[in-house]
Amino acid sequence: MYIVxxxxxxxxxxxxxxxxxxxxxxxxxxVDNLSKAEKFKNLVDCDIVDxxxxxxxxxxxxxGHYDGEIDAILHEGACSDxxxxxxxxxxxxxxRYSMILLDWCQDQDVQFLYASSAATYGSTSVFKEERQHxxxxxxxxxxxxxxxxxxxxxxxxxxxxQIVGFRYFNVYGPRETHKGRMASVAFHNFNQFRADxxxxxxxxxxxxxxxxxxxxxxxxxxxxxxxLYFLDHPEKSGIFNLGSGRSQSFNDVAVATVNGCRKAKxxxxxxxxxxxxxxxLEYITFPEALKGKYQAFTQGDLTKLRAAGYEAPMSTVxxxxxxxxxxxxxxx
Length: 332
Fold this sequence. Notes:
Elements: E1 2-6, H1 11-22, E2 28-32, E3 50-53, H2 54-62, E4 70-75, H3 87-108, E5 111-117, H4 139-156, E6 163-168, E7 170-172, H5 185-196, E8 199-202, E9 214-215, E10 217-219, H6 220-231, E11 238-242, E12 248-249, H7 250-264, H8 272-277, E13 281-284, H9 303-307, H10 317-331
Helix pairs in contact: 1-6, 3-4, 5-7, 7-10
Binding site for substrate: 170, 181, 188, 202-205, 215, 294
Subunit structure: Homopentamer.
Cofactor: NADP(+)
């Protein structure tokens, strides 16, 4: 029997594959699209039994090739570019593909865990898994939102097998190098500091929801742990926020990143004020292209996740970014 991870060569998918390997699981079918070939690097230190292109996999599923051979599908594959404007592509890739997998899993009595997104919430200030708080700002968010609505309908009908959706907030951590401009703030901060000796943030990054940008940043290691918790508990279904449960500023990320780099050189950590005074942190104009399409404040309500029995603490920005910078120093 196999476990399937879609988007397996991507950011979250590859971290899940590695987490499965670390508990001794190697019977993993990795599904992805390697048109961006550099993603293969995310799987070099992972053990799998097969790699299948995402289009070939869906054809094999529909042809009955894997009937009775799969225990679970962890569906991480999607177009996550929030600036993508091709709605037809987004809906086919994110919504329709997910529907095919959901239908098959229900028919085969297979666990189905999938990536939703905090982008489903849009500009709300309340981040609870409830319809009245949802209003995506872009077609990416809508593709995730619509699939969540279908899942809610299935859950109301008492599905034959587990269905779990995770509304990821701002995930950061190892194995996201291939994402380019869509990589996390921590990744860009690290590269800016290494190249220019300073970090640049958008104006308004001063750490308060009424005057700047403040987000729920969640470490990818925590994301993988939550996925495996629900994989271990097939009796638990639902749509759950998956963030740190706290909101921190872009300044916090920048400070943690710079201090992580300084630690590697045995240099003392600096405060925000010291970074600014020394010209190691500066602010730039907010891009016009992002206005009206950008969540300025997010903070996941983890009440449902905790009620489902997941008790492990979530990393703070300071804790998670420190681990991430150490990994980047060794791998990038």
